[in-house]
Amino acid sequence: MTPRASRPPSGGGSRTSPSPGSPSPGSRPSDSRPSGSRPSDSPPPDSRPSDTPPPDTPPPNTELPPLTVPVTRTLIVAGALVSRDYQDVHHDPEAARAKGAPDIFMNILTTNGLVGRYLTDHFGPEAVLRKVAIRLGVPNYPGDTLVMTGTINSVCADERIAEVGITGTNSLGRHVTGTVTLSLPGERA
Asked: What is the mean pLDDT of residues 167-181?
């Protein structure tokens, strides 16, 4: 096996060293304050009572706005391929009909990905899914529409952790139900 060729540093030619006395790239300027003190322009420490959530923390029972996803043949096949699920019922309509389904149908990994997308679309790309517990119901067939909804079940404001109940429905009923625990973006209290 031959090793990969290395790439030259981006930006062209040679790299220059910082001049003496200047900070190196990525370092912070030195600070002459005594350890533990804060600069005079920084805000005072948070003085909220510990049971008061930060202002950007959503309270329990908050309903998330719905996400509508058209269930296309392309979405079903691409989701199966990218998740390496080569079961013929996810890409071959004849094979799906031979096994009792009216058409190809979405696999659980694509559904799982849509659940994650729903929550990170709402909470932002910095949100981290910690636990995903879902159950499939009726299938998602091409030509249908999946509507994802969610409700915040609980929030631990100090740790910036939320548990969200999710449901995804289509014309046949509930396609997916479950709960997701995620770390919310932002500073911990």
From this structure: 98
Q: Which residues of 16-53 are buried (b: 16+ CB within 10 A; e: fewer)?
A: eeeeeeeeeeeeeeeeeeeeeeeeeeeeeeeeeeeeeb
Pair 105, 172: CB distance under 8 Å: no
* CA separation, residue 55 to residues 61, 113, 128 (Å): 16, 29, 20
Q: Bigger pLDDT: 172 or 13?
A: 172
Which pLDDT does position 28 carry in this prediction? 42
pTM score: 0.70
Count other Cβ atoms within 10 Å, centred on residue 124.
11
pLDDT at 102 over 60: yes
Euclidean distance between CA atoms 49 and 61, whole angstroms: 22
What's the residue count for the chain?
189
Name residues whose C-beta falls within 8 Å of residue 60's C-beta, 6 or more positions apart in sequence. 152, 153, 154, 155
Q: Pairing state of beta strands 173-183 and 128-136?
A: antiparallel
Show the tokens assigned to 82. 């990218």
pLDDT for 81 equals 95
What was the pLDDT predicted at 166? 98
